[in-house]
Amino acid sequence: DGGITQSPKYLFRKEGQNVTLSCEQNLNHDAMYWYRQDPGQGLRLIYYSQIVNDFQKGDIAEGYSVSREKKESFPLTVTSAQKNPTAFYLCASKVFSGANQPQHFGDGTRLSIL
Amino acid sequence: AQKVTQAQTEISVVEKEDVTLDCVYETRDTTYYLFWYKQPPSGELVFLIRRNSFDEQNEISGRYSWNFQKSTSSFNFTITASQVVDSAVYFCALSEDVRGGGGNKLTFGTGTQLKVEL
To answer: B59 pLDDT band (50/70/90 cuts)?
Structure first.
């Protein structure tokens, strides 16, 4: 079945450690997005990519990095510079970058600090 | 800047009651798109509906209906005869038609937690 796969479902980070969250889609979508969700808050955009080998910062990009080497994959690295990484991270994609297209989401990764 | 407000943080209803979730938005653009998503306890956001700014026709899909009013910048969502399975967080979101490849980002409201009890 087509969809978006995020892994792992739960992730723990030690102080000073970088961790990478995986996002893979087999929907043949061009655009991909990473969001952060904190309790009682809406989703905030971290990074997005409209085509392979290109990506842009969202509203809260500091302390995060991404790559888009393949159309299907958009991994997110939470670096040690992100001092408050505990949150629920959601990856999304859509067929192209047009504003009228809905984004489709994965199941999310819950990141906590050890 | 665009903004979406969902003033209702949490709503509790008894099964079979009707419930309306409010969404108010702000944008300076004339062309924009509004979305509703459902987030069940599993965490995944499920797309429910999209509405274009130039189409004010209300829509009904089974027990769900949506009321879009440009005059009040609102896009409210009503669930008729609510069921326990409707319990979730519901998000309203706004996407502007940004020319020049601005990314067409979604701006989300803070969500409304709906609890439907027996």
So the answer is: confident
